[in-house]
Design brief:
InterPro entries: HTH_HxlR, WH-like_DNA-bd_sf, WH_DNA-bd_sf
Distance between the termini: 30 Å
Protein name: Winged helix-turn-helix transcriptional regulator
Keywords: DNA-binding, Transcription, Transcription regulation
Organism: Chryseolinea lacunae
CATH superfamily: Winged helix-like DNA-binding domain superfamily/Winged helix DNA-binding domain
Shape: globular
Number of strands: 2
Number of domains: 1
Strand order of the largest sheet: 1-2
Largest sheet: 2 strands, antiparallel
Structural class: mainly alpha
CATH architecture: Orthogonal Bundle
CATH topology: Arc Repressor Mutant, subunit A
Number of helices: 7
Length: about 120
Amino acid sequence: MKNRKIPLNLNCGLDLVGEVLYGKWKMRLLWFIKQGHKRPSELQRQIPDASRRVLNVQLKELEDHALISKVVYPVVPPKVEYSLTEFGESLIPVIGAIGEWGDRNEARLRSLILAKPVLDGEA
């Protein structure tokens, strides 16, 4: 188990969801797996800005939280596929709603994000 800088706070549903979905690529991974992109290489092509290592870590966390399942086929080279669990499927409408909200507010969000000043130490 990794050491945490900030102690867990699981006092409400938002805390629980944040703990499970925290990670830049997790919602997109779930969305792409739902769309049929099941192999790690397919997911990497869908999210080229993410490193393979980060995707693997976030896939492992999604698996640990029972949102996806992993099948390793006994072939050479090894073949791995991910699929949503029933629990993971239940998140898809929520992720869809968040995406629609982002689409409806794209211009405003984009201007707010791009207007954010760069703080010392950020690159």
